[in-house]
Design a protein that fits this description.
CATH topology of the largest domain: MetI-like fold
CATH superfamily of the largest domain: MetI-like
Strand content: under 5%
Structural class: mainly alpha
Order of helices and strands: HHHHHHHHHHHHH
Oligomer: single chain
Shape: globular
CATH architecture of the largest domain: Orthogonal Bundle
Length: 287
């Protein structure tokens, strides 16, 4: 006599409704967040003569706007390179400073550490618009107008507080016994940090790097204030200066295509490294 095949327990009727409601809620939030980018993508694929069409899909599909955006005469390609240089340098330097600062704040004991952390997070609360005029005056006096450092240094000042705060919290969650064990095995404090702590902190460091890069890549206010040479402008600035065929009409299609090109690197980076980003954001949540 064959044994009866075990059957899965029946799922409560109310659970199906709750699961469906959760899925519907998630899909609604995703659609709401992606709607602007979707409309930008659709508008970029329309013909210039169809820019004000309300159809949900471009008909026919045209790449004229991308050809106009990537035309070397408008400086957009060079501006993309400038954005990559500024965002990449800002991310690299910010990360180096934030790793050492975060580790020191997490491990060292000194009077006033809480006040230092408070000042670090408070520094990120100043609106960038309040700093434009002082920065413009200083950079004019020292000859930094139309230079990369005029965009990188302010970008670091805006990104460092968040990076230091994130990494401090991450290093605090790592047990100090890791360094003690490494030093017992013969490592110096520097070697213990470099060979043990830093590799284990890779998810948090990587997540912080992505957040800093996104912030630096999207920066507009400082870049448009301290640079007036077209060869040094970043992509966000150059897009706002696009002009139409007759110099007074608004090239919506070209701007939409340029916006898609500027956004794609961030989308691709998040899709490729989403697991590391999630690991970094949730690391230390469970012991």
């Amino acid at each position: 006599m064959s044994a009866a095949t075990p059957t899965a327990p029946a799922r409560p009727r109310g659970a199906w409704g709750r699961g469906l409601a959760r899925r519907a809620g998630v899909l609604t939030v995703v659609a709401y967040c992606l709607a602007p980018f979707g409309w930008m993508l659709v508008s970029s694929l329309r013909r210039p003569s169809d820019q004000f069409s309300n159809s949900p899909l471009p008909d026919p599909v045209s790449f004229d706007n991308y050809a106009a955006a990537l035309d070397g005469r408008n400086g957009f390609v060079r501006a993309l390179v400038n954005s990559l240089v500024v965002a990449g340098t800002t991310t690299a330097v910010t990360l180096v400073v934030a790793v050492f600062a975060g580790y020191a704040l997490a491990r060292l004991r000194f009077r006033g550490k809480t006040a230092v952390l408070t000042l670090v997070i408070a520094a990120s609360m100043f609106p960038p618009i309040t700093l434009v005029v002082p920065l413009l005056r200083v950079f004019t006096d020292i000859g930094w107008i139309n230079t990369y450092q005029a965009m990188i240094v302010p970008g670091m000042s805006f990104a460092l507080p968040l990076a230091v705060w994130n990494l401090t919290a991450f290093f605090r969650q790592m047990p100090a016994e890791l360094e003690h064990a490494a030093q017992i095995d013969g490592c110096t404090p520097g070697q213990a940090f470099r060979k043990v702590i830093l590799p284990l902190a890779a998810p948090g460091v990587f997540t912080t790097a992505i957040l800093v890069f996104i912030s630096a890549w999207n920066e507009y206010l400082i870049a448009v204030s301290v640079v007036n040479d077209k060869r040094m402008m970043t992509a966000n600035v150059i897009v706002s200066l696009f002009t139409g065929q007759y110099k007074y009409d608004q090239p919506f299609g070209t701007q939409m295509a340029a916006g898609v090109v500027v956004t794609l690197p961030l989308v691709i980076a998040v899709l490729l490294f989403q697991r590391r980003i999630v690991d970094g954001l949730t690391a230390g949540g469970l012991k």
